[in-house]
Amino acid sequence: MKQLLTSLTALLLVSGGCTPEEEPEATIRIDLARRGADIPTSMYGIFFEEINHAGDGGLYAELIQNRGFEDSSVPEGYTVKGDRIFPPADRTNHLTGARPHPDLSFRWNPDPIPAWRFEQLEGSGASAELTREYPLNEASPTALKVTLPEKGRIALSNCGFWGMNIEKGKGYYLRMNTSNGNRFEGRAILKLVAEDGTELCNRPLAIDPDRTWCEYTGQLTATGSDPHARFVIELEGTGTLLLDYVSLFPETFRNRINGLRNDIAQTLEALHPAFVRWPGGCIVEGIDLSNRIEWKKTIGDPKNRPGIYDTWGYRATMGFGYHEFLQFCEDIGAAGMFVCNAGIGCQGRVGDACREEDLDAFIQDALDAIDYALGDGTTEWSRKRVENGHPEPFPLQYVEIGNENWGPVYEKRYDRFYRAIKAKYPRLTLISTLGLGGQHRHERVDMIDPHWYVAPEFFLSSSRLFDQQERGGYAVYVGEYAVNQQVGGGNLLGALAEAAFLSGMERNSDLVKMASYAPLLENVNDRVWPTNLICFDSHRVMGRSSYHVQKMYAENRPDYNTATEFEQPRNGVQVSGRIGLGGWNTDNEYRELKVTLPDGRVIEADMERGWTPKGGTWSAADGTLSQEGPGVMRWSIWDSPEEFSDCSISVKARKKSGDEGFILYFGMQGETGYVLNIGGWSNQTTAFQHMVGTDMPQIPNNIAQQVETGRWYDIRIDIHGDSFTYSLDGKRMLEARIEQSRQYVVSGYDETTGEEVIKFVNATEKPFTARIELAGAESVGRTGKAIVLTSGDPSDENSLDNPEKVVPEERVYKGFSDRFTYTFDPWSFTVLRIKVQK
């Protein structure tokens, strides 16, 4: 890690600061006397999902892969063809009524016994095969049957999750089950073997002759180290032996039984998360409902947990289950957020839903989960928590009802869950999966949960997205967000865009109360999602630059915002181009399109001629221009006599049918220009967008809005330079401005340390100098610190081989005052901490 600089030399090395000839490019005015919204302690948390082998082969410390020999077990109703698995064909999507597409399939490991290798060392004719003739238990019906028809010697080896990290002098806890029935005569040796064949542990084991299942436990102590070792069972003799539930654990985080991998858990703890969300993600719903997470099957002895075929293409043991999740929350001082199933399968996959008469069982299941965490030990499920070794309640504070569900079925079901849970647990915060504007679709809602996975430009243009959101009666939890496009595996540019977006969340902390980056973890040997916060292999772990942004925000969270003005010159932007009308998968009709110019002239469009359709089918009659399918993007451009810049555009519009609302195009040069999307995003949201071909990022600020079918609306857009105003039926609805700056600032006061905390993002290739004025302070300490995350190239990425290529550097700065000038590095996220007496 970088060393704190404390000398005069340090002052010369600090890039922040100005020489006399440097002229400020902007002014940041902070009024410490004007207190803004409190920044809640709940603001920054983490979201766990079993994806990219985040749990098995990652956070969950188990070293044996396919420990119960169930990885080849095909879920009931599913079909395997080669390396693909297909869901049941008889399910129905609750929104569309459609059956799964015949091509809908997911990854499948075609190996007959995944992760295990059988080798005959002496003799001949030996075999190993899966069997269900004598199950260990209901959860683990499959065992490995090893047969030596004549005296010989065989080896069964398990590669772990792309190697096992074995360290000299450390002990590894073994659990292994065998069933003999006097059919095997011989001996066994348990080994830890390095990649080059060197034995790191050799321990003989006497096989019990009993026919019933016998469990062996004990420590294997390593005499050497290798991050790519394997576990080996050697059998010498003759006969048949059954093996099942072969488990090997290293030392775990907080020394918990069935615990977590130390280095990954510590990396998460270092984020100081206020909460942990579990179990997901799409795995909450499953590919279909039969494949969903059932929390009751994730508690108790892990030997009795059936696991599931995971939505992300592998079988998960659910060893990091509901109890372990709650225990981890307690261990790191975080609140728990449980995501329950709303009786709906993943709507991005099969999308089936249970019958309405069966929904009460899902509601009761959620209530049972809450009872397990919070009950006093006298109720059914809280007694099970006590039996599992935890007498006191766990810190569960939040319940999210469903995951990325939407539509009328979900909206009504959420209300039923809400009423039932609040009746018993009124202090719990309940979260809807609907995004911005979704609060209007429920009877009551505590929080809504919008998600964003985007390219850098979207977040760089959306730091003010929350500024104009409706307030009152609800809060926002940004449960999943990340820059995961156009940033490789996750580079500095993506991290800076996220830092810019977070500045908007923190500034709007009266509305946005919680946020969690997603996905959290990635085993580099099985990346199924393009970018993830923390990467690891069998023995190493590193945080991407986005991880350091998260950590810097959490470690430098003020108690409240302070009023901040950021003034910088704006380059003139003149929007100019043609006008168009359309709809997204929606049929509309338009009439009375008029353009009012600054000089008062009014230009009226002929709605029956002079239009160039770009998509869909268009017709005109009686002064009305109408559209219909086919195609999703149905739009037409007015061949006006001139291109329009500053002006007012008015039109009357009516929705005939479809999923969304109206789309108005302006400033169009070919297929580049600007869009007002009214009732977009499944008829939930209205926003301006910048259109560049098929890429249409939002311009900051949007509002919740629905468009009714059959009603005429009066729409008006006022364009002035780089600013747009949308009015509906004479009422101003939304203002937006093209974001030109790539600098972002937010500030607040830390009452514990007596420091003003300024966070600044410079997402450009040049240093940026600002004059910073602190008003309302009795005194300002000259010496403080700057924490800077930067690198020479925005495409720089951390890796397991170079984990500190992009990491924060803490610098001493001795030039603070109530008026000072500071130069921010190119491509940087900077936190300034200034001692202030108020």
Short description:
The chain is mainly beta.
Give a quick set of tags describing it.
Jelly Rolls; 4 domains; Immunoglobulin-like; 838 residues; 40% strand; mainly beta; 52 strands; disordered N terminus; TIM Barrel
Task: Provide the fold topology.
Blueprint: H1 8-13, E1 26-38, E2 44-47, E3 79-81, E4 84-86, E5 106-107, E6 116-122, E7 127-131, E8 143-158, E9 164-166, E10 171-179, E11 184-193, E12 199-205, E13 214-221, E14 226-249, H2 262-269, E15 275-278, E16 308-310, E17 314-316, H3 322-332, E18 335-340, H4 359-374, H5 380-387, E19 396-401, H6 408-424, E20 429-432, E21 447-448, E22 451-454, H7 456-460, E23 475-478, E24 480-483, H8 492-507, E25 512-517, E26 521-523, E27 534-536, E28 541-543, H9 545-555, E29 560-567, E30 578-584, E31 586-596, E32 602-604, E33 611-613, E34 617-621, E35 624-628, E36 633-638, E37 647-658, E38 662-669, E39 672-679, H10 680-683, E40 685-692, E41 698-704, E42 712-720, E43 723-728, E44 731-737, E45 743-750, E46 755-762, E47 768-775, E48 779-780, E49 784-790, E50 808-813, E51 819-824, E52 828-837
Parallel strand pairs: 1-47, 2-15, 2-25, 15-18, 18-19, 19-20, 20-21, 21-23, 22-24, 23-25, 26-27
Antiparallel strand pairs: 1-29, 3-4, 4-5, 6-8, 7-8, 8-14, 9-14, 10-13, 10-14, 11-12, 11-14, 16-17, 27-28, 29-45, 30-36, 30-38, 31-32, 31-35, 31-37, 33-36, 34-35, 37-42, 38-39, 39-40, 40-41, 42-43, 43-44, 45-46, 46-52, 47-51, 48-52, 49-50, 49-52
Helix pairs in contact: 4-5, 4-6, 8-9
Characterization of the model:
The chain is mostly beta strands. It folds into four domains: 8-36 and 743-837, Sandwich (Immunoglobulin-like), CATH 2.60.40.1180; 44-57 and 257-556, Alpha-Beta Barrel (TIM Barrel), CATH 3.20.20; 111-249, Galactose-binding domain-like (Jelly Rolls, Sandwich); 578-737, Jelly Rolls, CATH 2.60.120. It is 12% helix and 40% strand. It is built from ten helices and 52 strands. Strands 1, 29, 45, 46, 47, 48, 49, 50, 51 and 52 form a ten-stranded mixed beta sheet that branches. Strands 6, 7, 8, 9, 10, 11, 12, 13 and 14 form a nine-stranded antiparallel beta sheet that branches. Helix 6 links the parallel strand 19 (396-401) and strand 20. The chain is globular, with a radius of gyration of 30 Å.
